[in-house]
Design goal:
Blueprint (H helix, E strand, L loop, with lengths): L11 H4 L3 H19 L8 E14 L4 E5 L5 H4 L11 E4 L6 E6 L3 E2 L3 H4 L2 H14 L5 E4 L13 E2 L24 H13 L5 E4 L34 E4 L3 H4 L3 E7 L3 H21 L5 E2 L2 E2 L6 H7 L5 H4 L15 E2 L5 E2 L38 H8 L4 H10 L21 H7 L6 E4 L19 E8 L4 H21 L7 H11 L4 H4 L2 E4 L26 H4 L10 E4 L1 H6 L7 H12 L6 H15 L5 H10 L12 H17 L8
Parallel strand pairs: 2-7
Antiparallel strand pairs: 1-2, 1-4, 1-5, 1-6, 1-10, 3-4, 8-9, 10-16, 11-12, 13-14, 15-16, 17-18
Bound molecules: adenosine-5'-diphosphate (ADP) and magnesium ion (3 copies).
The site of one magnesium ion has 3 residues, from loops.
């Protein structure tokens, strides 16, 4: 809850006066931390996950399911670490008043096998404790997107979409967390951008689909109300106009601590491409605002939902009546600059997007950073005095962003403000990966405290899964993959422009089975040394069921890449060591066979999703909707179907690994 300080939040026009102060102070804090901790070494692989829940009120008499927005007080009751049979749990507030985030109370130790077996029981505890504090008809569900969010009466109690913070045509202010930070963030994104955000998802076409978002009201309440009809809403698309459409989604994140800064940089770079494949494998969001859409995941929704870039920065014409510089106080002149002297530039991506800069590690070449990440030149220069070019470029890119929420009480650079100004920018850059440096020393501290968090990488791309079994599976596999990569050190670099293309492809319907991903061919791994470490290892068979064992390795040229399916990337191919082999060999040598049954189950699930023998949540849901009696082949998800889906998800949650969607 680091950033949830109490105080008076500044609206955009006042906050922007302090942009330079926050950025410069943030960079000073970063440099302090870097100098103090860049030689920090031998940290243990600790790791922890974050699971986000939606509180859903299921009313069987009315045959309806709604998002609950009046029980957020349970967060006060759930404050602090709570004991449970499988280690403690911690609850955190989230953007939505109907949301709850939970993590383990303390990170897991990734060098201890039993900790991998604790993840799922710990998650079960999190749900149980939450349920104990909620009325009987309320269920905490891990839905990536609530199917009818933004449509009609979708909250309990009912609330109208007429709030000043949101100004949304669809979402009431009452869905936003009561802490002032959240409505301020919402409004400041709009004020900086100079328009409401606009998210357009292609409608999935069925026999009777009109290919028109019929839910957009004509209204004259707020300044930006006409935007939908002035070009913000695209034909053939579902239109959404608020931060809440993105930050009101749930996702699955995992943070791990690497041995030192170098290992963290290496794993970060390698994971960049894996975030795309794991997004496809975790796909769980085919319905938004009551429509089946022609994609399977949440990522571009949340990316668009917090996109505070002005039309000029995006390189597009403003909507009628809006200025190209949005809420920036731009000085007239040939080169646009803001009053504090900051140049205004084109910015290719939202604050919530894929990574734009590799941090640079073994095997890295500067040409892999080919997506033209804009940087703050002044900050780059400052950082280059202390850091190498790649790391400096990473942070000089993150720090092109303006702070979005600032509390008037915290506008100084006094040391008692701790790491606030660094985190202000760092934590509002929501990329597929986050590189988390250690915090600066506390007052009086003179050397590294090995019990404080070290150099960490957060893997942030995945949609959340219905059951704790699935969530545990993805998390454990990604954590073990990080360890395996750090141990076997393949070269998986491809140019970041190809990673971007992969992220786009990961959005497509059934990308898990139909998609192809740009993948490096020559990884430097000795394929033969992974022989025998396919899924067969887990059942103790010596039988070889896998291409890898029998295939003939074809020498690939340095830097060449092929387009592989998720199946090939996960399960391996003649010339490619898959995630299955990396993880299996790692587990075999690190832990041996005894006690690894659960890890084997997790790996099998991920493997089956890639192979297509178990459908993704998104595929299953699309099928559930389109075969439902209440569905009329018009791509619309009506209230009754929304209800039946929520009831079904609750059944699947209870069924765990024996749920119908996993058979
Ligand atoms: P954020 O929302 O900023 O990503 P959270 O505190 O919600 O951060 O979650 C971070 C996760 O990182 C939690 O699961 C936590 O247990 C885990 N974690 C905490 N300390 C460490 C550490 N030293 N190394 C790795 N993971 C850690
Ligand atoms: Mg969190
Ligand atoms: Mg969260
Ligand atoms: Mg996180």
């Amino acid at each position: 809850m680091g950033l949830l300080s109490l105080g008076t939040p500044l609206c955009w026009a006042s906050a922007r006066e302090h942009n330079l102060l926050v950025r410069n102070n943030g960079i000073r804090l970063l440099l302090t931390a870097y100098v103090q901790s860049h030689t920090r070494a031998n940290d243990v692989f600790l790791w922890g996950d974050e699971v986000e829940y939606m509180l859903v009120k299921v009313d069987s008499a009315a045959h309806s399911a709604k998002l609950l927005i009046d029980q957020d007080h349970i967060l006060t009751e759930l404050d602090g670490a709570l004991e449970c049979a499988a280690g403690g749990v911690l609850y955190h507030p989230e953007y939505g008043r109907f949301m709850l985030e939970a993590t383990p109370a303390a990170p897991y130790n990734g060098t201890v096998l039993s900790d991998y077996n604790t993840v799922e029981p710990n998650m079960l505890c999190r749900r149980e404790i939450a349920r104990e504090h909620l009325p009987k008809d309320i269920v905490p569900l891990t839905l990536t997107a609530f199917p009818r969010m933004g449509l009609g009466e979708f909250t309990s109690p009912a609330a109208e979409a007429n709030g000043a913070a949101s100004q949304s045509l669809f979402l009431p202010d009452e869905i936003i967390n009561r802490h002032v930070r959240f409505p301020t963030l919402t409004a400041n994104i709009r004020r900086r951008r100079g328009e409401k955000v606009a998210i357009n998802l292609p409608i999935w076409k069925d026999t009777h689909t009109t290919m028109e978002d019929e839910t957009i009201p004509r209204r004259q309440l707020f300044l930006h109300d006409a935007e939908a009809f002035d070009g913000a809403a695209k034909p053939g698309h579902v239109y959404m106009d608020l931060m809440g459409f993105g930050m009101g989604l749930s996702c699955l994140q995992v943070t791990y601590q690497l041995r030192d800064i170098n290992e963290a940089r290496y794993v970060y770079d390698l994971m960049a491409n894996y975030t795309t494949v794991f997004l496809a494998l975790s796909a769980a969001a085919p319905v938004f605002k009551g429509y089946l859409v022609d994609q399977d995941v949440r990522w571009n929704v949340i990316s668009g939902a917090v996109d505070d870039r002005t039309p000029y920065e995006r390189g597009v014409a403003p909507l009628p009546g809006n200025g190209e510089f949005g809420g920036l106080d731009v000085e007239a002149g040939s080169e646009p600059v803001t009053k504090d002297g900051t140049p205004v530039r084109r910015v290719p991506k939202s604050r919530y997007d894929s990574v734009l800069v590799y941090l640079g590690s073994e095997g890295f070449k500067p040409e892999y950073n080919d997506v033209g990440a804009p940087v703050d030149e002044g900050i780059l220069k400052t950082l280059l005095g202390t850091m190498d070019e790649q790391l400096a470029t990473h942070f000089a890119h993150l720090f092109i962003r303006d702070p979005l929420v600032l509390f008037s009480e915290r506008v100084s650079s006094e040391p008692e403000l701790g790491n606030d100004h660094f985190e202000n920018i760092q934590l509002t850059n929501w990329q597929t990966l986050r590189f988390k440096p250690p915090a600066p020393f506390k007052p009086g501290q003179t050397e590294v405290d090995p019990t404080s968090p070290g150099w960490r990488v957060e893997f942030r791309s995945m949609d959340i899964q219905i059951t704790d079994f699935e969530n545990a599976a993805y998390l454990v596999v990604v954590a073990l993959l990080a360890r395996a990569l750090a141990k076997y050190r393949p070269n998986l670099y491809v140019p970041l422009s190809l990673v971007d293309e992969n992220l786009k492809r990961a959005h497509r319907v059934d990308a898990a089975t139909k998609g192809r991903f740009h993948w490096r061919e020559e990884t430097g791994l000795d394929v033969a040394s992974f022989k025998g470490y396919g899924l067969e290892w887990w059942s103790g068979d010596s039988g070889e069921d896998h291409d890898l064992a029998n295939g003939v390795a074809r020498p690939a040229e340095e830097d060449s890449h092929a387009e592989l399916s998720a199946d090939e990337i996960i399960n391996g191919l003649a010339r490619t060591v898959g995630v299955v082999q990396l993880v299996t060999k790692f587990v075999a040598l690190e832990f041996g066979r005894s006690g690894t049954e659960l890890v084997g189950e997790y790996l099998r699930l991920v493997s089956a999703r890639a192979r297509g023998t178990v459908a993704t949540n998104a595929h299953y849901m699309r099928q559930f909707v389109t075969t439902n009696q209440g569905y009329h082949q018009d791509s619309k998800v009506l209230d009754a179907v929304n209800y039946e889906w929520c009831v079904h998800v609750e059944e699947l949650t209870q069924a765990g690994r024996s749920g119908a969607h996993l058979q």
